[in-house]
Design goal:
Number of strands: 12
Helix content: 25-40%
Largest sheet: 7 strands, mixed
Order of helices and strands: HEHHEHEHEHEHEEHEHHHEEHEEH
Structural class: alpha/beta
Strand content: 5-15%
Oligomer: single chain
Shape: globular
Strand order of the largest sheet: 2-8-7-6-5-3-4
Distance between the termini: 22 Å
């Protein structure tokens, strides 16, 4: 199947497959907070309109300061970007002509941005039989030959979080051999902010952390993400970024979102409750389900391709795994939506099984 490289934009899936999309589509292929942006963002809207004729702050204020305060770091350790996609592209430039170690299955943009910069990719595939846990020993053996290792924590598409001692072992070894570590924490706020590595960065200047505002706050349309790293790394990223790379409306919205603690906690509880219900249901149906800790999960049915197409015919879009190495189309991913939508999905899946 020739399918899009990312979730969302469901009508492109139908177009690529030559299918006529139904009037009503339920898109489980993307994994944003189903309640939509915080109410405070809606209340801010009239003020945002007054900013349309004003150039934004070139450093991404007031968002930059809010990120620094939120994580308890200096502003010199933060870089705001036009979504995590831009951030990953700027980071990849650091490794032009070098070698990067990428652990699969994982987010496709790592390799896409690295290959665009002429970076050689050394691939490791986490074992399906081992629940896609990080292959720590294999990673440790290859670090000396790489300029950087990319790790998604928790992982996309599996939702699996590295074991407690895995990341420290990799990070310490990487420092010894002169290898940088890029940690993508785009979904860690659906788990627990205390699991972020940001608070340990002072001791590990070779670690670069990528964060996204898209998923938790349901604001994919404005494109907003950031990096937390050593000030020298941040200065290097700034030197290659375009001026005004974060628009003023995005910076204002992001600053408001970071103050929404009750909203975050509600999202965490909802994702956990729906994930647990869906995991139990799929397991009862004979599927293998990943041990996800975030707002999506992956599962392996007996015939993923047929299930995927049959659900499309009913207006239900799941996330395929055709471009996830190590899953190779045999798995499907589900983003957690409203309780009503999740129940509708379970009903359709029950009929199919």
């Amino acid at each position: 199947m020739q399918l899009p490289e990312h979730g969302a934009n469901p009508r492109r899936v139908y177009e690529n497959l030559g299918m006529t999309p139904p009037e009503r589509i339920l898109d489980f292929s993307e994994n944003c907070n189903p309640v939509g942006p915080p109410r405070a963002v809606m209340e801010l809207w009239p003020d945002l309109l007054t900013r349309l004729n004003t150039y934004p702050d070139p450093s991404g204020e007031p968002f930059l300061s809010k990120v620094a305060d939120y994580h308890g770091v200096s502003k010199a350790s933060v870089f705001a970007g036009n979504g995590a996609a831009e951030v990953l592209s700027l980071i990849a430039e650091r490794y032009r002509g070098k070698r990067a170690l990428v652990v699969h299955p994982t987010f496709s943009e790592y390799e896409a941005t690295l290959l665009a910069k002429g970076v050689e990719i050394d691939r490791l595939i986490a074992s399906e039989a081992d629940g896609f846990r990080l292959p720590v020993e294999a990673i440790l053996e290859r670090l000396a030959d790489a300029a950087v290792v990319y790790i998604c924590t928790p992982n996309n598409p599996t939702g699996v979080m590295p074991e407690h001692d895995d990341l420290p072992a990799i990070i310490h070894k990487a420092r010894e051999v002169g290898c940088e570590v890029v940690l993508d924490e785009a979904f860690i706020d659906f788990l627990d902010e205390s699991r972020s590595f940001i608070h340990q960065l002072n001791d590990f200047p070779h670690v670069i952390i990528v964060r996204s505002m898209t998923k938790m706050y349901a604001i994919p349309g404005i494109r907003l993400g950031y990096v937390v790293a050593h000030p020298d790394v941040i200065a290097a990223l700034k030197s290659t970024a375009p001026h005004w790379n974060v628009n003023g409306m995005a910076a204002a919205i992001g600053a408001v979102c970071l103050g929404e603690e009750a909203y975050r906690q509600q999202a965490i509880q909802h994702a956990r409750a729906e994930r647990e219900k869906m995991t139990a249901f799929l397991s009862e149906c004979g599927c293998t389900v990943t041990d996800s800790v975030t707002n999506f999960l992956s599962f392996k049915p007996r015939d993923a391709e047929k299930l995927y197409i049959d659900m499309l015919a009913k207006g239900i879009v799941l996330r395929h795994s055709e471009n996830f190495r190590g899953m190779d189309g045999r798995w499907l991913r589900i983003g957690m939506k409203s309780s009503e939508e999740m129940e509708e999905l379970r009903s359709e899946l029950a009929d199919w099984f």
